[in-house]
Model the fold of this input.
Amino acid sequence: MNEIREVDRFECKVISVIQNLMWKGITVEENSTKGRVYFGRVNNNLNISYGDTLYLGIKPIYEVEDKTMHVTLYDAENKKLDWTLV
Done:
């Protein structure tokens, strides 16, 4: 069985962008599993649009309120954009 490591990155596509005053809400879909993750606090100044390619970093964690994964959203330069627990 392959174990997910903190340095692993999974390619995903932006499927929606919600613009508000201070942040962007970004929903991405992982290419192979079609799993979706929402990130609610992406910097508003970044130029991110529907269809763009971003990357997910996944790190297993001890269960916290029924959450078992720490998921981080990265751009192509490996810059951290936001994170969430799923």
